[in-house]
Amino acid sequence: MSQDAPLNMEQMAQQLPDPVNQGTAYQQALLSLLGKDDPAVVQAETLAALRTVLQEAAQEKRTKPADKEWSVLELLGHIADAEMVISNRYRWALSQDGTTVGGYDQDRWVEHLRHNDKEPEDLLETFTALRAANLKLWRRSSPEDRARHVMHSERGKESYDLMFRMIAGHDRFHLNQMRETLRQVRSSRG
C-alpha cells in the first residue's frame, strides 16, 4: 500500500503510520478517517462513544491484549493526553502563529502516568472539560484564525484547521482500537 493511499478502518486497526518518521502519511491517515464529516460533530460525539466502549469493556477495561499493547483504559488515557496536548497547540497557533511545538512520546506518557491504575471517570472528567473548551474555541474561530499554524518539531507546519481535523480522525482511530482491543481480549479467553 502506498503511503499516500487512504487507509480504511480495518487497515487502521492494524497500524497507524509513525507520526515521527511518516509525518505526512500519519496526517493523511487521520484525515482519511474523518473523510468529509464535520470535525466538530465527530469530536462532540466522542464522549458518548467512549462511555459506550467503557461500559462494554466492564471488568476487562484494564486487560491488555498483548504484552506491549494498551488496554481499553490506557487507550482512554491516551485520548485524554492527546486532548491536553492539542489544547496547548491550538492556543499556540491562535496566539503565537508560527511557534515551534514539540512532539511527545505517547508510550512513555501512558506508562509513566499509569493510566491503567486510574478510574475511568477521572480520565473522562479531564477529557470532557478539555474537549468542551476546545469545541467552544473552534466555534468562535474565524477562517483567518483557522489558517494560523504551529511548526511541529516532527511534522512541520500544521494549521489550527489541520490539527482540529486530525484530532477528529484520531478519535475515530482510537475508538476503533478500543473496540478491537476488547475483541482481542475476549477472543483470547476462548
Describe what this molecule looks like in 3D.
- The chain has 190 residues and is mainly alpha-helical.
- The chain has a single domain, classed as Four Helix Bundle (Hemerythrin (Met), subunit A) (Up-down Bundle).
- Helix content is 65%, strand content 5%.
- The protein contains eight helices and three strands.
- Strands 1-2-3 form a three-stranded mixed sheet.
- β2 and β3 form a beta hairpin.
- The N terminus is likely disordered.
Write the layout of secondary structure elements.
Blueprint: H1 9-14, H2 23-34, H3 39-57, H4 72-95, E1 100-101, H5 106-112, H6 120-140, H7 143-147, E2 149-152, E3 156-159, H8 160-188
Parallel strand pairs: 1-2
Antiparallel strand pairs: 2-3
Précis, in short:
The protein has helices at 9-14, 23-34, 39-57, 72-95, 106-112, 120-140, 143-147, 160-188, and strands at 100-101, 149-152, 156-159. It has 190 residues and is mainly alpha-helical. The chain has a single domain (39-188), classed as dinb family like domain (Four Helix Bundle (Hemerythrin (Met), subunit A), Up-down Bundle).
CATH architecture: Up-down Bundle
Q: How helix-rich are the residues, as a percent range? A: 55-70%
Q: Give the number of helices.
A: 8
CATH uppermost class:
Mainly Alpha
Mean pLDDT: 91
